[in-house]
Design goal:
There is one protein chain. Helices cover 30% and strands 28% of the residues. It is built from five helices and three strands, in the order H-H-E-H-E-E-H-H. It has helices at 19-27, 32-39, 58-64, 95-100, 113-119; strands at residues 44-55, 71-81, 84-94. The chain has a three-stranded antiparallel sheet with strand order 1-2-3. A hairpin with a 2-residue loop joins strand 2 (71-81) and strand 3.
């Protein structure tokens, strides 16, 4: 499993990113799944690593606006192009938010969370 690191803003990086990397990481707010699928010429896949209820990290609780030590749904996957891991992704959701929604994250399997989020107008 990848090592956890602190999230950095663009101006906290030790060296500036080239414009394309900066766009991918900080500018484009669209679907990463869509962008990776296009980059891979359609040969995109998701490899689930960890999925389930866990205690959320302090930074995740803060970002979600929930109390420290809250439980949430955690999903860690590799987003792959041509069968090779390109991106490690960790998605989290607060338990209370999921209980109020109709989302069934437990049944995503190898489907991309981004595919679900960007294909459902309600989300």
């Amino acid at each position: 499993m990848p090592e956890l690191h602190t999230w950095l803003t663009a101006n906290q990086l030790p060296t500036p990113l080239d414009p394309l990397q900066h766009d991918w990481l900080y500018v484009d707010k669209g679907s990463l799944t869509r962008r990776l699928t296009e980059l891979a010429g359609g040969a995109f896949s998701v490899t689930p690593l960890v999925e389930g209820w866990q205690l959320l990290r302090d930074d995740e609780c803060s970002a979600l606006g929930v109390a420290g030590g809250s439980e949430g749904w955690v999903r860690e996957v590799y987003l792959c192009g041509h069968g090779r891991p390109w991106v490690f992704a960790r998605s989290v959701a607060a338990r209370a938010a999921l209980e109020r929604s109709d989302m069934d994250l437990q049944r995503l399997g190898s489907r991309s969370l981004g595919e679900l989020l960007f294909s459902d107008p309600a989300l």
